[in-house]
Write a structure and sequence with these properties.
By secondary structure, the chain is mostly helical. The protein is built from 20 helices and no strands.
């Protein structure tokens, strides 16, 4: 049976809170996730805290992101990048709110909508870009888990086995709600970095000065500065988050304007928690800057945890290693799911839902587990350039983000798709501004890198 026109989708979804996406008959049996039990007492708080928005935000505080923040702190101390992290999470909230609203308004994932509105060519290009970016990023998550477990003496193969087993076990739980609880239970430990920051005993005066003045600016050349700008943007505004939150909102069965209001709160809470944890990771690494530690000596071993141990003690270093393990684990769950949603939505007739078991959604689960397995095998390749992969993963995500943002803006401004939930003026101003800034930063980094490659020194 062919799907109803987009205008009917929007009207039906918002008006009645019920629309069955064309590729997933499992959702016919979905009950209202904000049912009577959750509306009463303390249970009403749960959907505000646990949901796709929080998981997207805390999942984006992944291994390379936390390493990127820590690298900024270890390289330049407190200054420009501390308040800059807060700005990037504000930008991430704007983007993720649009993705959530689009999913709730239409009942369809991002990939499915791109196929419907822009055709198979753009749909496959979008899905292919995402799968490539996700695969590279998954490798970095396994690296983060390997580095964290390596601090405790666990061999590389053991760390990789644990990472792949986590994804496989959570994928085959048989329910989205169970998968979400597993991910949320791990995600809350992202706040470990706040404890490490306290142990590092930063100067309150220096933190206040950094927040108030965005200074001191990093003493680095233009190419290095642009790389850090692009890398930190890529740590918070990435394509996989967009795919994940929209598709997970559909998989969770969110419907109606009440779900949009709850989704905004959930995304906002997630952004605030993730921003605090990201800033804490930067602050936790600033003792390395103060003690003039050469991080090149540690990049092939247990990394930051090993370097921090003589300065902040074994407890702080151990917490940092645990934080890396948690960041990599949560991100692996969310990023592999994002890729599975994209592939499932790209193939006509394939179910893309955790609620569909392995027998009903083999492609979805095979993609989810398979990407994690292949990423783990790459990490075990002797001599693989693991550190270079980590340092460039966020840059790749930022370079590929403008196209995804452009599609998102077009879709959320299409009244046939969105109905009454179409973007307002403020959302468009912020969305266009973010797209322009990310695009210019990416282009500037590419141009400076090209000039440097041909021997032209810039900055």
């Amino acid at each position: 049976m062919s799907p109803p026109p987009a205008s009917a989708v929007a009207a039906t979804r918002i008006g009645t809170g019920f629309y069955v996406p064309r590729h997933d008959p499992v959702r016919i049996r979905r009950r209202d996730p904000w049912g009577p039990k959750l509306r009463r007492g303390a249970g009403a708080v749960a959907p505000l805290i646990i949901g796709p928005g929080m998981l997207a935000m805390l999942g984006e505080n992944d291994g390379p992101s936390m390493l990127s923040y820590a690298t900024s702190g270890a390289s330049f101390g407190l200054g420009f990048f501390l308040p800059f992290i807060l700005v990037t999470f504000a930008a991430a909230y704007v983007v993720q709110e649009m993705a959530m609203r689009l999913g709730v308004a239409t009942g369809r994932g991002y990939g499915e909508l791109v196929f419907q509105r822009f055709g198979a060519g753009w749909g496959w290009l979008s899905a292919g870009d995402l799968v490539l970016t996700n695969f590279v990023t998954l490798i970095t998550e396994v690296i983060a888990i390997r580095l964290g477990m390596g601090f405790f003496g666990i061999p590389a193969w053991g760390a990789v086995a644990c990472a792949v087993a986590l994804v496989a076990t959570s994928s085959l739980t048989g329910r989205y709600s169970r998968w979400e609880r597993i991910a949320a239970g791990l995600a809350i430990f992202n706040l470990i970095f706040l404890a490490i920051a306290v142990i590092a005993r930063p100067s309150v005066h220096d933190i206040a000065l950094s927040m108030a003045t965005w200074r001191p600016l990093p003493e680095a050349g233009l190419a290095t500065f642009l790389m850090l700008i692009v890398s930190n943007f890529g740590a918070t505004v990435t394509p996989w988050m967009l795919f994940f939150q929209q598709s997970a909102s559909v998989d969770k069965g969110l419907t109606g304007r009440a779900a949009i209001r709850t989704g905004r709160l959930n995304t906002g809470i997630g952004a605030a928690l993730a921003a605090v944890a990201g800033c804490a990771a930067l602050v936790a690494a600033t003792p390395l800057f103060s003690h003039h530690v050469d991080m090149a000596r540690y990049m092939e071993g247990a990394g930051f945890a090993e370097a921090l141990a003589p300065i902040i003690g074994h407890l702080g270093a151990s917490l940092f290693a645990l934080g890396l393990i948690e960041a990599g684990a949560v991100a692996m769950l969310a990023i592999s799911a994002s890729g599975a949603y994209a592939v499932g939505e790209a193939v006509k007739g394939a179910a893309a839902s955790f609620d569909a078991g392995l027998s009903r959604a083999p492609l979805f689960h095979a993609t989810n587990i398979g990407m994690a397995l292949i990423a783990g095998l790459v990490v075990l390749i002797p001599g693989a350039p693991l550190i270079r992969i980590v340092l460039n993963a966020n840059v790749l995500a930022t370079i590929l983000m403008p196209a995804a943002l452009a599609f998102l803006l077009i879709l959320t401004n299409d009244r046939e798709v969105m109905g009454s939930e179409v973007n307002g003026r403020l959302a468009n101003i912020l969305g266009v501004s973010i797209t322009v800034v990310v695009t210019l930063a990416s282009l500037a980094y590419v141009v400076v890198g090209f000039l440097g490659g041909i021997g032209v020194h810039v900055g």
